[in-house]
Amino acid sequence: MLKSRKILLFLVVLVATLTVVLVDVMMTSAQTPTQREFVVEIRQFDYNPRIINVFLGDKVTIRLRALDVSQGMWITGYDVNLQIILEEGAPREAIATFIADKPGVYRFYCSVPGGGAFNPFEIGYLVVQPNRPFFSSSTAVVVMGVAAIFLYDGSNGEADVKAKRIWRFNLLKIRVVKWFVKLRSFQFILVWPTLLVFMVVIFTSLIGTQSGNRNFGLLVVWILWWSVLMILMVPFGGRIWCAMCPIPSFGEWLSRGAIVRKQSGGLGLNRRWPKRLDNIWLQNISFLVVSSFIGILITRPWATAIMVVSLMLVAVVIHLVFERRVFCRYVCPVSGFVGLYSNFSTLELRVKDRDICVEHVGDERRVRSAALKSEAKSETERRIDKEPESESPEHGGVDCYAGNSNGYGCPWFEFPKNLDRNAYCGLCMECVKTCPRDNIALNLRLGGEDLYIDPEYGAKQRGLDEAFKAHIMVALAFLYGEIFGGINTWTNLRGQQPLANFLGPFPIVRPDLFPPRWDMEAQFAGLVWGSALLMMPAIHLAFVALSKVSSSAKDVPLRTLFINFSYALVPLGLFAWIAFSLNILLIQVTKLIPVLSDPAGWGWDLFGTRYYPWSPLLSGLLPHLQIVALLLGLVLSLRVGWEISTRTFTSHRQALRGYIPIVAMLMLMTIAFLTLWVGGIF
Amino acid sequence: MKVYWSEIVATLMVISVLTVPLGFYYYQEQLYPSDTTVYVFTRQWEFIFHRSPLYSEALRLAPGTKELVVQQGTLVRLLIWKGEVVHGFAIEGYNLTVVFTNGSRRPNVTDVVVYPGEPVLVEFLVDKPGTFWIRCTVQCHPVMHWYHRSKLIVSNGTTASYV
User: Fold this and answer.
1) What is the pLDDT of residue A490?
2) How would you class A33 by CB atoms within 10 Å of its CB: exposed for 0-12, middle for 13-18, buried for 19 or more?
């Protein structure tokens, strides 16, 4: 880096830091700590006022009044808990006093269990000014964005066309791991426990109590599964969930005619999936359909059961008609974003040495035709099945794609030799079993390059379907953040009506007294589809158009820019979802403790934890964890964006100038997410 | 013919998963025998008395009645459950004994608080004949709470009864 750039960069950091300090000093010196009293009225499902503004050092007194039913108020971060149980003759007001010694935004939640189906969404903000976490993190965003431009301007600008292989460790070098994944029963061992849990989920959410806070099914699916999926499984394991997911299991077992062993001929028709649908548009649509009903799904346990069971049934039907895992690859609503985000994960399945594959199946052209042939003829597959492994290439099939006596051909339609992206590898480990040359590796890695390389050999190219998936996920990370952690969505949607009336026929709230509000459901679905398919892509398009103008690269089509730069949103999107999931996990997870003892809400006490009270975990730390997650997402997105830019544009100069609008977009999005989680404004 | 043991074991394991619902009913029957337990379903703003955990808001699999009719002289166990907001439960003229899941009891209670999804087991000996008000004792709506009532009718043996 040039010296002048270093000085410039230093100046930017200095000015930014000084601004924050100055604003902070001005805000704190303008106020002397005082005593403040707030009367907070609560009714289903709303606090009045929803935002309590105080200054650092104030002595705050909250007088909580319940207007309709028993209610509470748990201020996270300060762990102040007010509860009003409206027994006849009991006081209707609860008072607490505390010193506001932590700056930032702390959400308060209703702490009286139940309080209606929408209890978890009775949310307000305690804003302790000056909002240091928000100001400093927003400044950090600006500094990071500017620094990225300076840094990459200083880089030598030679794009690596092939991805850098920074670090790899093949887990299959560990003997136990290799023995385990080579077992025929490997996938069954993963699936069976989740199948058991799913059975309990279906049963309890259908027959058990319909109070979501005491229902095993609802809590396990929407609090535990979702958070673990987004925080652990996808970033660290890629599609590892797809390997253990029980939803397609019944279908797969029926179509194979076997649970564990390899055998040919099951019940399925083994039709080929139409070429027209060889993309993830169906997954985009199915995900948006599920999202349209998220309000019902997260508040009504029976709806969760219906969703899970109908997904299982759809999977069975699809497995009986089509070959392999068409359901997972093309239809499943979860699979789409898990695939896109696992491009970024730290686990990958690849071949050890591509030359061995080429040598095994012949020259390049023959490999392609062999793969195509075996795809075309299922008879080949059956023939290969009987042949000794070493002979299979002679018969025009490839062990890993067509299968052999050790295992099935790749259920995900992938040809391991051609794998250079995680997107559609389900980690089922069949290829480890079928590969006659022991050429499959399961690598730990520092991920990311799947996002900026074009698939070199595989059939599936980058396209608008995956680009829109990235936009859908970013848009919904924001929308869901507002629904689960914001104070406005529900109230705006419901107008003057009690919220319980909205979202469908729900027998707990008397349908005779409160008719379902389908107009509100339609409004909500409109918000989901509009923000995901129109608003977010439009914002992206605007910045991409700017990028085209500023780069003055006439030879790169706008469509290519639109698609390629969409992948820059993947790390930020993933970390925005992690910030979201941290919120629901830490706030809600202790509700699982009593539920383990009483899964259906039938009055059981299996482990003696039935009366364990709800309390948010690490709630003082939560906003800071979310900030760290979002800033990390920004840094990674900035890097991926630059790698994409160098590969999309021809010269370094073009790449840098085309990169600047993308940096601006990423910065704006990060600030939007910061505002959502720690801004305390809306 | 080759026997695939792993296949048989796997099949049995899958079938064992499908028996989860039976396990739930079996354990519920052990905890709350259906011949002595009446399930009281309380919600805004009514009580429904029924005989099986199958009474579900979602499915309505088991029938229920709006009034509780019992034989004089019996020991009635009520499992008060479900509901969407915090409710209360009292029978005017009777004191209740709260039975906790660890077996301990709190006798002579006039009313209990029922949280959503947390069933409360109470029992009492029906020794006084007549008709008694059953009512909610926690405000569950500013107005409608006062209509959240039902009746306990103590039968002298000639009418059909729940217990």
Assistant:
1) 56
2) middle
Kindly tell me if the per-residue pLDDT of A195 is higher than 80. Answer: yes
**pLDDT computed for residue A502 by the predictor:** 43
For residue A219, the model assigns a pLDDT of: 93
Mean pLDDT of chain A: 83
Q: What is the model's pLDDT at position B1?
A: 65
Q: Which residue has the higher pLDDT, A636 or A391?
A: A636
Match 């299979």 to its residue by tokens: A392
Nearest CA in chain B to A257: B7
Sign of CA dihedral A661, A662, A664, A669: positive
The CA-based angle A662-A666-A672, given to 5 degrees, is 145
Chain A interface, best mutation among B112, B118, B141, B149, by max A CB count within 10 A: B118
Task: Find all residues with CB under 8 Å of A403, minimum gap 6, and list them.
Answer: A262, A381, A384, A385, A409, A430, A434
Structural element, H or E, at residue A351: strand A347-351
A37 CB-near residues (< 8 Å, 6+ apart):
A60, A61, A63
B125 DSSP β-pair partners: B75
Helices A132-154 & A652-674, crossing angle to 10 degrees? 170
Judge whether B161 is closer than 8 Å to chain A, CB to CB: no
- Residues in chain B within 8 Å Cβ distance of A115: 85-86, 116
pLDDT, tens digit, for every residue of A91-123?
A: 889 999 999 999 999 999 988 876 666 678 888
Q: Using an 8 Å Cβ cutoff, are A125 and A53 in contact?
A: no
- Answer yes or no: do A188 and B10 touch at CB < 8 A: yes
Q: Can you give the pTM of this predicted structure?
A: 0.90
pLDDT digits (tens, 9 = 90+) for A483-525: 788 876 555 444 444 344 444 334 344 455 555 666 667 777 8
The Cα–Cα gap between A447 and A421 comes to 10
Task: Give me the interface pTM, i.e. the ipTM.
Answer: 0.90
d(CA B85, CA B79): 17
Is the per-residue pLDDT at A282 higher than 60?
yes
Nearest chain B residue to A299 by CA: give it.
B84
In whole angstroms, what is the distance from residue A340 CA to residue A469 CA? 8
Of A364, A137, A194, whose CA–CA distance to A372 is shortest? A364
Q: Which amino acid is at A30?
A: A
* Mean of pLDDT values over A185-194: 93
Whole-number percent of chain A with pLDDT over 90: 42
Local structure of residue A271 (DSSP, 8 states): B
- Using CB atoms and an 8 Å cut-off, which of residues 66-125 of chain B contact chain A? 79, 81-86, 88, 101-102, 111, 113, 115-121
Q: What is the average per-residue pLDDT within A293-316?
A: 88
Q: Which residues of A touch B82 (CB under 8 A)?
A: 209-211, 601
**What tens digit of pLDDT does each residue of A116-167 get?**
666 788 888 999 988 889 998 999 999 999 888 888 877 655 555 454 567 7
pLDDT at residue A91, as a whole number: 87
Low-confidence ranges of chain B (pLDDT < 50): none
b or e along A121-146 (b: 16 or more beta carbons within 10 Å of the residue's beta carbon)? bbbbbbbbbbbbbbbbbbbbbbbbbb
The arithmetic mean of pLDDT across residues A560-577, rounded, is: 93
**What token pair was written down for A247?**
């939803």
Helix (H) or strand (E) holding B31: helix B20-31
| Interface A:B, Cβ pairs < 8 A | 160
Q: Where are the alpha helices (DSSP H) in A322-420?
A: 326, 333-342, 354-361, 364-376, 378-386, 399-402
Q: Which of A88, A112, A258 sits opposite B7 (nearest CB)?
A: A258
If you search the block for the tokens 């594959």, which residue do you land on?
A357
Q: Is the CB of B43 less than 8 angstroms away from the CB of A192? A: no
Chain B, window 26-65: residues with a beta carbon less than 8 angstroms from a chain A beta carbon: 27-28, 31-32, 43-44, 53-54, 56-60
